[in-house]
Design goal:
Keywords: Signal. It is built from 1 helix and 8 strands; from the N terminus they run H-E-E-E-E-E-E-E-E. It is mainly beta.
């Protein structure tokens, strides 16, 4: 399956999600996410240095996908936002768990 097909499928599956949503993710298990007009997937693998988290987002099926990769140790988080959107995507690690949460406005 191409990345654009995956993102398009993720977009359709997000239609039922509310404005704020949090869920725990397991290794290699992809989760659909939305960040304003962007939609995509998040997954992670367990590495020696921490959890390698890969987030891929695009605007619609024809948008150019962007990928954000981070390695999270216990207690760390990654926050993704766009300047034109009030939404934020927070990926946080607590012990052996990884939580993906979408929320409203980003506070500085």
């Amino acid at each position: 399956m191409s990345i654009r097909s995956t993102i398009l499928a993720a977009t359709f599956s997000l239609a039922s999600l509310g404005a704020a949503h949090a869920s725990t993710l397991r290794p290699i298990e992809g989760q659909s996410v939305r960040l304003g007009d962007l939609a995509g997937i998040v997954y992670y693998t367990v590495e020696r240095d921490g959890y390698r988290v890969v987030t891929t987002l695009a605007e619609g099926a024809a948008g150019t996908p962007i990928r954000f990769v981070s390695v999270l140790a216990p207690g760390q988080r990654a926050l993704l936002s766009t300047p034109n959107q009030a939404d934020a995507l927070e990926i946080s690690r607590s012990g052996d768990g990884l939580t993906v949460r979408t929320s409203g406005p980003v506070s500085n």
